[in-house]
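**User:** You know discrete backbone vocabularies at least as well as I do. Would you mind producing a protein record, from residues through to fold? Write it directly below this note and I will take it from there.

**Assistant:**
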Amino acid sequence: MLAKKEEDGKERVVYFSSQTLKDYETRYTPIQKLCQCIVFTTERLRHYMINSVTHVLTQVDPLRYLMSKPYLNGR
């Protein structure tokens, strides 16, 4: 969901999208699913995000874990 904050402090929905996972995507790890979601949303809503500051809000801890690691290794 892409929301815009109005002057009175309330959020108004600007755009909403959803995607159904394919069979092989259901076997992704939670971190991979979250990254896929962010990439999908960024591709679809790029024209909204290009000229403004964008904040990504999640209720998932794996993203916080990834961002707190000093470096990434492995895959």
